[in-house]
């Protein structure tokens, strides 16, 4: 039983990975939706605290300015990484989220890779290559969800 945070840049595959884990029967929360993120790109801290206190096993996905405040409540913080070229190709073609289609948003993503990615990497307990198949990524996260030594 473990709480896992999957974090990374827009287009890394976080939402797709969460969908796969949900389809496998795992409790998942994508903080890009349903009001988890407040203005200023921060998580709703009381709501996140309540969620983590209530569920010993779940996968949360997202990237927010205040996510580091919650790292101690996750057994694993997984950085889902993909090169900038892959991120930009994905955000321009995805159908489930309009963010990243505008040139200004793509410039923001490039800036975040430079400025935010090193911070995420420092706080992560593991890193997965977002270019792997969704099944391989889901298998890796499922391993982290299992009790016992890894």
Provide a quick synopsis of the model.
This protein is an alpha/beta fold. Helix content is 41%, strand content 17%. It starts with a strand and ends in a 5-residue tail after the last helix.
The outline comes out as: globular
Q: CATH homologous superfamily - what is it? A: P-loop containing nucleotide triphosphate hydrolases
Question: Rg to the nearest angstrom?
Answer: 15 Å
Element-level helix/strand string: EHEEEHEEHHHEH
**Distance N to C terminus:** 12 Å
Let me know the average pLDDT.
93
Q: Beta-strand level of the residues, as a percent range?
A: 15-25%
Count of strand segments: 7
- Helical percent range? 40-55%
Number of helices: 6
Task: Work out the count of structural domains.
Answer: 1
Structural class computed from helices and strand pairing = alpha/beta
CATH architecture group name: 3-Layer(aba) Sandwich
List segments where confidence is low: pLDDT < 50 over at least 5 consecutive residues: none
The CATH class? Alpha Beta
| CATH fold-level name | Rossmann fold
The main β sheet shows up as: 5 strands, parallel
């Amino acid at each position: 039983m473990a709480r896992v945070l999957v974090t990374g840049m827009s287009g890394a595959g976080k939402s797709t990975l969460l969908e796969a884990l949900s389809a496998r029967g795992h409790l998942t929360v994508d903080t890009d939706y349903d009001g988890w993120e407040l203005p200023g790109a921060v998580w709703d801290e009381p709501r996140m605290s309540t969620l983590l206190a209530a569920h010993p096993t779940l996968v949360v996905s997202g990237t927010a300015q205040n996510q580091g405040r919650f790292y101690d409540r996750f057994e694993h913080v997984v950085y889902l990484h993909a090169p900038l070229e892959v991120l930009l190709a994905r955000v321009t073609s995805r159908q489930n989220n309009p963010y990243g289609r505008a040139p200004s948003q793509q410039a923001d993503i490039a800036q975040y890779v430079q400025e935010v990615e090193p911070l995420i990497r420092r706080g992560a307990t593991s890193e997965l290559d977002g270019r792997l198949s969704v099944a391989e990524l889901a298998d890796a996260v499922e391993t982290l969800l299992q009790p016992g030594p890894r």
